């Protein structure tokens, strides 16, 4: 069971899937921005080029639903859904945390 708890007129209820999937927070779509160039990441191919330039390598775990990257210099692993349309703010913030001062998540508006 997933969704958002809404309190209205003294009643609390669970609203399932209040927004469409994929990086939507409070009705807005988030985007991942590569700070050195200001590029908005719009595909996995552009993201992969940047990650590889930062020392990340593809990691093949056998899970066909995920694309994964690891860095030899750390224990970090970035796991992303193979379908870019499912790339949402949770995955974006994971990339931001594992690459400080390199990426930023912002509203697309």
UniProtKB/TrEMBL annotation:
Family according to the record: Belongs to the FPF1 family.
Name of this chain's protein: Flowering-promoting factor 1-like protein 2
Native source organism of the sequence: Brassica cretica
